[in-house]
Structures are given as structure tokens and as C-alpha cells.
Amino acid sequence: MTDKDLMRRLFDRIGAYQQEMIDLQRELVARIAVGPGEGGPGEGEKAAFLADLLKNWGLAVENYPAADGRVAGGQRPNLVAYLPGKRPEKVWVLSHLDVVPPGDENLWDSPPFTLRVAGDRLYGRGAEDNHHGIVASLMAVKAFLDLGLTPERTVALALVADEETGSHYGLEYLIREQRQLFGDRDLIVVPDAGNAQGTLIEVAEKSLLWLKLILTGKQGHASRPPLARNTLRACAHVIVALEALHQEFPLETPLFKPPASTFEPTRKEANVPNINTIPGRDVFYLDCRVLPDYDLARVKERVAAIGTEVAQKFGVTLKVEPVQDLPAAPPTRPDAPVVLALQKAIREVHGREATPRGIGGGTVAAFFRQVGLPAAVWMTVTDTAHQPNEFCTLSNLVGDARVLAHVFLSAED
Ligand SMILES: [Zn+2]
To answer: What pTM value is reported for the model?
Structure first.
């Protein structure tokens, strides 16, 4: 049988799994896996269900639980299930078990933890984030099992805890304690973000720097400005002066969208409540998304220097405090094997060209990249994660399961 015939059989089989996809989503949505930090019971029930299911399919399933006294049983599960391939090198698909709380339930058209099917759409908390990844990867594996086919690489499904609240009990823990699970020649796919066409492969992130800027002057009566030192006026001038950051850190990389670093003044705390008082204290925040080429310490230094120089002209002092300071992990190369395998698969399943890109926000793949493992974040999204009436679609599930099956079969290095 040629590779094309094999692929055709896998694609046909996956296309026939729509009822199985609905059934699995229903089971997953019903098992509330909100983390204890957000008032939930954790991932235990959902993990137990999935471990049983995968064992029934004949897969070897291991658990690497992280101790957490806040949940029943005292452990957060991190499952790894293996489907042996022709080669020991693996294709990892990492999905997360936890979901965010439903938020205001009045905004939902149906109960968030009961699956609702409407045409192509499957509604429920977690349906997209991240059951989409779980269901697509499991159905790709099921097609190999049902057809009695052996994938080229060993398929490793990782189902981890705690992605929504920092991954301390999830992927961060797994990589710290079980680094040997992941080989340098493994392909790592994280189906947890993407675009609606399934053509965005996220390979890099900008560094994140949040700064709090506190200006202190002297409060006074608005009729007597010489007796006061107006921090709001100073604040306005500091914000304008900080535009210079774009010239001081001018690098642009087409990998990222937007291609340059960004420096946005965002939140402004309230100062005086009345109109006839000159404020003597003002606080605002700067959200900086910085290309990985730049050192965040240098950015902080320049913000303080530029701001202080201006503030001094108004007799005002400036203090700069970091609120978040997260240097980006080294990017996955745009020609890394996992990127090429995904691009080829997306081309063959959808006839579309997928592009490796960097984004401004953080993803769980950064934990892989921090230790030098090239991971790619990819899936086809509805962009309803964390929203009321979150949904995923059957057509995206079928498409993404086919892409993953193609990657499982790919012989490339
Ligand atoms: Zn997610």
C-alpha cells in the first residue's frame, strides 16, 4: 500500500468519527476540571476517565502527579499515553486537562458543563480550550488502532494539569522532574492556539515586561500652581517622552506580528477626586512586549532614565517598579522538523500554506523552549476560549485530527 493510500484510509476513518467526537466531548465537558486556585476540584476526575479510556484502547498510560494539598487526593495528574511506532523517537501532542471557570453563567445560552450540540458546533466550557486538542489527538490515535496501522514515530499524548494558572503543577513540573521523557529528536505539537484557517504555527514569543510608574510631586490648590508640583502634567510629558522607546529599540522581525517591540501606556490609577486640586501623586502602567533580541534590564533602565529626565523638569520624582518580568524563551526555528511536518500535513489535508510566526502573548510551549526543545503551537480555533458559549466545531476536530495523523505518519527528521 502506498503512503497516499494509507493516508486516504486514515482520513476516511477520522471523517467517520463525528459521533465519537461528540461523545468524548460530552464526557470531558461534564467532568469539571477547574483548578483549586480558581475554586475548583482540579483535574482528577477527568484524568481518571481519560486514563481508563486510553488503557481500554490498549495504550500504556503513565501518571506523573504533582503534589498539591489543595485538591482531593493531594495530587494533580500529568498523564502520558504511548502508541508505539516504528521508531523510538516520538511525536508529542501536549494538551491540558484544566479549564477556566464559566464566569457569569447568565451569559451562557445553556449550562456550561453540559455539552450542547448545534449543527457543527459543540458548546461547553473547555470545548475549545483544551478539549479540542485532547479530542483531535485521541481520534488520530484511534484511527491507527482501528485500522491496525503503526505510526512512523511513537505517539506520546501528554495530558497535563494546571495550564490556566501557571503550569507549576503541570508542564513546568513534568519538564523539571521528568526531563528524560523528552528527546532532542522528538517532535512536539501543542494544540492550544492558532487561527481560524489552521495556518498559524506559533514558534516564538516576545518577552513580557509590565512596569508601574509612580510620580510623586506636591499636592496643592488649583488656583496656586507655583505652590504645588503637578504630577498629572509631568505624567503626560513622561508618556510622550517614552515614545522614544520605539526608536531606542527599533528592531523589526517579520516572524512577529506586529514585527517590532511594543511599549503601551495602559492603566492609569485615579488621582484626586476633585477638579480644584493639583495632584501630587500619579501612577500609570506600561505594557512592553519586547523582541527576544533585547535585554529587559536595558529596557527598564531606559524607561527609568527617560522618565526621570522629564519628571525632574517638573520638580517631580519618578519610581519605576516591575510588575511582571518574563524574558522570552529562545524561539523554535521556523525550519525545525516539527514546523516542516505540520506545514506538509496542513498542505495535504487542507491545501493551505501554514506560516510559522511569533506572538506577543505567552503560551505553555515556552517551558519546552526554555530547555531547548523546539515545540510548535498549532490548532484550528474558533477563538472562543475563556468566553461564555465557548465552542469548537466538528469540522475543525476532523481537520486537525487528520493533520495530526499525517504528522504521526511522517518519516521526516
Ligand atoms: Zn488552553
So the answer is: 0.87
